[in-house]
Amino acid sequence: MQLFPFTPIIMFTLLIHNFSLILGQQPYIGLGTVACPRRGNKNSIRGYTCNGSNHTCQAYLTFRSQPIYNSVSTISTLLGSDPSELAKINSISLNDTFETNKLVLVPVNCSCAGEYYQTNTSYVFQNSETYFLIANNTFEGLTTCQALENQNRNPANIYPGRKLLVPLRCACPTKNQTDKGIKYLLSYLVNWGDSVSLISQKFGVNYMTTLEANSLTLTENTIYPFTTLLVPLHDKPSSSQIASSTRHTPPPSPPSSENRSNKTWVYVVVGVLVGAIALTSVLCAVIFFTRYRKNKNKDDSVVVSKRFEATEKKPQGKVNEKLSEIISGIAQSFKVYNFEELQRATDDFSPSCWIKGSVYRGVINGDLAAIKRIEGDVSKEIEILNKINHSNIIRLSGVSFHEGRWYLVYEYAANGDLSEWIYFNNVDGKFLSWTQRLQIALDVATGLDYLHSFTSPPHIHKDIKSSNILLDGDFRGKVANLSLSRCLEGGDDQFPATRHIVGTRGYMAPEYLENGLVSTKLDVYAFGVLMLEMVTGKEVEAILTEGETNLSLVLSAIIGEESGQERLKEFVDPSLTENCPLELAIFVIEMIDNCIMRDPAGRPSVHEIVQSLSRILNSSLSWERSMNVPRN
């Protein structure tokens, strides 16, 4: 009798405890996979909650075959699946391989591990990888970087050869679902062009049932590539249901005309060094502005902070003393021109050949070239360019010295600089499509990745901005103007701090402006600002509201609110109109937001940016073709 008064309380407690089991919903992860480690506290990002009637069950994943994971053995090993079962459900033999991008069904045993459902596999950490790359590229979104960090001890201590526990996203049906005859849940990898309706139709599932399983509604049902959607199944999935699901990866944009014979460039591969260009060839030039924009001053907005002591200039005599040494070294790598050759090439530096500033267009041996006149010491820039051979960094092909001035001869960029093309109010009406902007951004990031990771010692650019990105005849981006570049002088990946603050307003990172701290994350911050300008069609000064200096606050209205996609329509460059996939644009905004974080430690590496942009570009090209968007 004494227990009776407590019975209603106990029943109420049990009801609350089992409430999630009755509802049978798992929140869709949304854009959580983009931000790592930022905004990664939602439970759904770490895994599906253990709310099913069983703590273990048979579940299914999907995976898109990619080299090197394109066979029964490699995919089953990567995902911890039984190879015989994987071969059987996909109706192939154990020794068969899958065509690239083939959708593969993967049977797994799913079970509760603490708070989350998961199926575990392992992965050996490779050189230059991060949790973000492992989650979103190797495992294609079947796990998240937050889940990896959550389930591996000392997550910051990552090194080549370390064995990682990889929790893959799976779930078991709730009581509510089993009562309706649902026996299995399939974690489906969303690709571009997918929708809840199409995925449901593919597997013969009721549309509303799929929405319900993912806590989506008729009005809130947007899904994003590289995420998982739970598909509730009454029967085991079959290979016939995914037979038409192969999505061929779009071919990369055509390489620049000078490299058409080189077939090795594939934009989705990070850090690939594209075809060696002979240093003695003469293909030169830099086209900046052919006319002034109203706010031309931005291009020349180099500032020196008064809070810091300026570095003492080297006397001109010091420069001249090094002249013979510099020319001697140059002659081994670059052509040394007589000044008269450059006079003939530019019609004696005629105004008709003037491009901008001290840059002139010239013709040398029938080829266009850009000739830049410089006063002062150019040894550092020449030394850097002498070490570099990359298609996404402008190439120096020759030099000349005359009456105390240097003349540098660069490869020709037929479409000028990026600042002529991305601003909505440009006077020439020039326009870049969404995919062209992404391709150029990927080119810039790839060039920076080369500077940061593949030069010895590593270098940072320190002046990434729209006017320092040149476009060749095929609108492929090339990083230019390495005059402010710095190299790693010590160990531990540390660049020395400086008291000489030089750069362009709006592009300089807070830690550099305030404390003179120098690292590769300066380029990441500037790249984020550049991408923001490319997406909005506005210069950074126009994006910031009066008195505001924090760009992240500008983005918070888009990525931090439920109505973010509507805000995004107003935020994107109006010239893109309907020719921009907003579902992918929000991924770019998230990436930009991570790049411009105040804390440099929270910014991604350029290597991570390259990986993310490759995937977004790949999906955007598919979208462009599916929508028959006209190409420029």
UniProtKB/TrEMBL annotation:
The keyword Coiled coil does not apply. One of its GO terms (biological process) is response to other organism. SMART domains: LysM, S_TKc. Residues 237-260 are annotated as: Disordered. Keywords: ATP-binding, Cell membrane, Disulfide bond, Membrane, Nucleotide-binding, Signal, Transmembrane, Transmembrane helix. It is found in: Cell membrane. Residues 238-248 have a biased composition (Polar residues). One of its GO terms (cellular component) is plasma membrane. GO terms for molecular function: ATP binding; protein kinase activity. SUPFAM superfamilies: Protein kinase-like (PK-like) (SSF56112). The chain crosses the membrane at residues 265-289. Residues 1-24 form the signal peptide. Residues 121-166, 186-231 form the LysM domain. It is a single-pass membrane protein. Residues 308-617 form the Protein kinase domain. Its main location: membrane. PANTHER family: LYSM DOMAIN RECEPTOR-LIKE KINASE 4, LYSM-DOMAIN RECEPTOR-LIKE KINASE-RELATED. This is LysM domain receptor-like kinase 4.
